[in-house]
Structure formats: structure tokens, C-alpha cells
Design brief:
Structural class: alpha+beta
Radius of gyration: 18 Å
Number of strands: 7
Strand content: 35-45%
Number of domains: 2
Shape: globular
Order of helices and strands: EEEHHHEEEE
Helix content: 10-25%
Largest sheet: 4 strands, antiparallel
């Protein structure tokens, strides 16, 4: 038997994933295969929607953020699930770093949007760094560039 596992998202723990068995997929004759899909149930951005239909579709490039708040939420979710290429692609070229590197000691644990305007979003992001909890408070600025929202910069407090 061949088992194919597709993982969508990251930080797969029993509290945050579901497994569904799909009908057998064609393989070599006489060798049944089953397709299991592991998905994040809740999007890390805090909307309560499934990751795949919330920020996952933005991370995959199937859709663009429709507002500054949606982009900010999707960028937070990208940090949380390790989609750092998305973070880099959605950063304004004028202000983005040469690369966005993962921090293996950091785990993002929650997002609260405090205020959202047309091109600014104030939020607080909770994290755990090497067993020590913390919070990041930022007022981020965004702009549309060629019809797409991008992160410009932010003020930390």
C-alpha cells in the first residue's frame, strides 16, 4: 500500500489539524493508495476560518489581499506557518530586507488586531521564544503598488 501525505500549513499538532482519507488514487495496478490530507483547522491569523480558505489561499498565490488588514493578517499567518517567501514578496521593495530568515526559537501564538484603517493596522502579536512568552505591538503602514497591497514599515511600541 502506498500512502501519500499532503501537509498544508505548519505546526501540525493534534489540537490544530484534521486528517481526511480520500478515495484511492491511481497507482500501479494492484497497489491501492490512499491520499491523506493534513490541514490546519484554524488559520493562525485569528479569523476563525480554516487556514486553506483564509490566509492559505494568499500564501499559495490563488488570491491577493483585498485590504491592508487582510495583508497584515496573512503576513502574521505566514510567519506563524513558516511561509517566509510570502512575507518577503509582500514587503515593499523600497523597505524590505535582502532576505527574511526563520528564527527556530520563535513560535507565534496569537494575533489581536487593535485598529485597522485604510492603509494602517495596529496589532499585538503574542509569541513564545525559547519557552519565554512575549508580545509585539506594532502600527504597520501599507500601500497599494500596481494594484497589490504591500507592507511598507511599522512603528513598534
Amino acid at each position: 500500500m502506498v500512502i501519500v501525505v499532503s501537509i498544508e500549513g505548519a505546526e501540525v499538532t493534534p489540537q490544530r489539524y484534521s486528517v481526511r482519507q480520500h478515495p484511492p488514487v491511481p497507482t500501479d495496478p494492484g497497489r491501492p493508495a490512499y491520499f491523506l490530507r493534513v490541514t490546519l483547522d484554524d488559520c493562525p491569523c485569528g479569523t476563525g476560518e480554516r487556514y486553506d480558505v483564509c490566509c492559505g489561499r494568499l500564501h499559495r498565490g490563488a488570491a491577493e489581499a483585498a485590504s491592508a488588514e487582510e495583508l497584515m493578517r496573512s503576513r502574521y499567518a505566514a510567519y506563524a506557518v513558516g511561509e517566509l517567501g510570502y512575507v518577503w514578496r509582500t514587503w515593499h521593495p523600497r523597505t524590505r530586507p535582502e532576505s527574511v530568515e526563520p528564527d527556530p526559537t520563535l513560535r507565534w501564538t496569537g494575533l489581536t488586531v487593535l485598529d485597522a484603517g485604510d492603509d494602517e493596522v495596529e496589532f499585538e502579536a503574542a509569541y513564545d521564544r525559547a519557552g519565554t512568552p512575549g508580545r509585539l505591538h506594532e502600527r504597520s503602514r501599507f500601500e497599494q503598488r500596481r494594484g497589490r497591497w504591500v507592507y511598507v514599515d511599522g512603528d513598534l511600541s
